[in-house]
Amino acid sequence: MRISANPLRGQQFPAALLLVAAALGLLLANLPTHDGIAAILDAHISIPGTTLDMSIAHWISDGLLAIFFLIVAIELRHELTHGELDSPHKAMQPAIAAAGGVIVPIAVYLLIAGGGDTATGWPIPTATDIAFALGVLAMFGRGLPSGVRVFLLALAILDDIIGIIFIAVLFAHDVDWLMFAFAVVAVALFGVLSVWLRKTGSAAIAVLMGVIGVIAWGLMAGSGIHATIAGVLLGLVMSPAPAERLRHGLEPTVNGLILPVFAFAAAFVVIPQVSPTELSPAFWAILIALPVGKIIGIGAFGWLAMQLRPRGTAPALGLPDLLAAGALGGIGFTVSLLLANLAFAGAGAVRDEAILGVLGGSLISLLVSAVVVSMRARSYRRLAAAAE
């Protein structure tokens, strides 16, 4: 019997789609097509009767990406309550490794670009793109034990939590606390309605939740806190059963449309016609901090977590597998692109070079991780064959 599956629910195809979308955005930005596409991305759309007036590029990063963060938050809640992070014992090694995967890239970035205006970009190399990392793991990791995937998933989720905190705390501007309070009330009402939806299954409640969710997003956007935080809060408060149905329903749209459109718009930057020595320190800092900082940070701190484990218990992952996870962790992409746009929002040239740094650093990490993961997978397959 032939089994059909939607490739947009897998790991390999969405990762490849993201890479193609980013490459296409970068290519078209450096061809005569630039001006026409730039005019479209810069065109403003406003909602009458509200303060919302944003360019199409911002509607993509603040609006469409909020749906992505909604899905991320649903997955976060599941992992924190019933998944791989639901106990201190499970979370210890990935939590310590994730801390290293944040601290060391920040240190590398500040060492290279810590002086002057580029210092504000230090959060950029801290993120790990779950879709890309798991896509590479699925493509090259045949034979790896499931523990490697579980560890990487936990690591990436913790990275996402840190990235969300950075977005909420560092990039809020002129916060209107009253509007923020109204947004929180709307989020709370959304959560209550989701409980009723679980009990009744009413389509009317589902529609009302959609309306309340959009209102919560609009209030959050108007409050001065980045609008994607609304998606995070909505995902965290939603009742588990309706949340899982929503995640399942939205997954193909997020993987097949929202993330590729964001990748295209974020990567739509002109490659500067300058010598390498004239590039911004932010470019070099991100280019190095993503692959090098992540491997060192995750590898070293993950190894430290092994030494701190209770005596007599087996390590979750050994050092070679930690280095493979570190290489995968350097694929920053989605959240790193968003952080680059936020960190250098007022400096277009530096922002574009920072985005190029994200693309370059993520590509280096992708290639390195493909090699390292393939080697580890081959080693495990040999061990399995010898055991048989």
From TrEMBL:
Name of the featured protein: Na(+)/H(+) antiporter NhaA
Membrane topology term: Multi-pass membrane protein
Alphabetically ordered keywords of this record: Antiport, Cell membrane, Ion transport, Membrane, Sodium, Sodium transport, Transmembrane, Transmembrane helix, Transport
Domain of life, source organism: Bacteria
UniProt-listed InterPro entries: Na/H_antiporter_dom_sf, NhaA
GO biological process terms, semicolon-separated: regulation of pH
Entry function: Na(+)/H(+) antiporter that extrudes sodium in exchange for external protons.
Cell compartments where the protein resides: Cell inner membrane; Cell membrane
Transmembrane segments: 54-74, 95-116, 122-141, 150-171, 177-196, 203-219, 225-241, 253-271, 283-305, 317-342, 354-373
Catalytic activity reported: Na(+)(in) + 2 H(+)(out) = Na(+)(out) + 2 H(+)(in)
Entry's family note: Belongs to the NhaA Na(+)/H(+) (TC 2.A.33) antiporter family.
MF term (GO), any: sodium:proton antiporter activity
GO cellular component: plasma membrane
Principal subcellular localisation of the protein: membrane
Pfam families: Na_H_antiport_1
